[in-house]
Amino acid sequence: MIWFFERKDARLLYEIRRQADGDDYELVVTFPDGRQEVEKFEDAHALIERSQRLQDALRAQGWVPPAPAPRGASTQ
């Protein structure tokens, strides 16, 4: 799953995925400058808790999910 957040003209995203070479999970944050931070988790419950804390922290820092495009608006 991928979540997008915006603040002014910047965009940040984070992704939850399975490790490519194992059964564990990764939470990957991609910052507006392209830098990435990766956190690894063996336990899905711990990953979900961390994801919720991250969303709360981002919102507290002024990051918000992007507004949906108006119906009928061009995506080009």
3D architecture notes:
Strand 2 (10-18) and strand 3 form a beta hairpin. Helices cover 22% and strands 36% of the residues. It has one helix at 44-60, and strands spanning 2-7, 10-18, 25-30, 36-41. The protein has a four-stranded antiparallel beta sheet, covered by helices on one side. The protein has one domain (2-60). By secondary structure, the chain is of the alpha+beta class. It is elongated, with a radius of gyration of 14 Å. It is built from one helix and four strands, in the order ββββα. The model has no long low-confidence stretch (mean pLDDT 93).
Describe the structure using short key phrases.
76 residues; alpha+beta; four-stranded antiparallel β-sheet; 4 strands; 22% helix
C-alpha Rg (nearest Å):
14 Å
Largest sheet, spatial ordering of strands: 1-2-3-4
List the domain count as a whole number: 1
Shape: elongated
- Approximately what portion of the residues adopt beta-strand conformation? 35-45%
Instruction: Give the class from helix and strand content and strand pairing.
Output: alpha+beta
The strand count comes to 4
Largest sheet: 4 strands, antiparallel
**Number of DSSP helices?**
1
Order of helices and strands: EEEEH
**Termini distance?**
24 Å
The portion of residues assigned to helices is 10-25%
Low-confidence segments, given as residue ranges, are: none
Q: Mean pLDDT, as a whole number?
A: 93
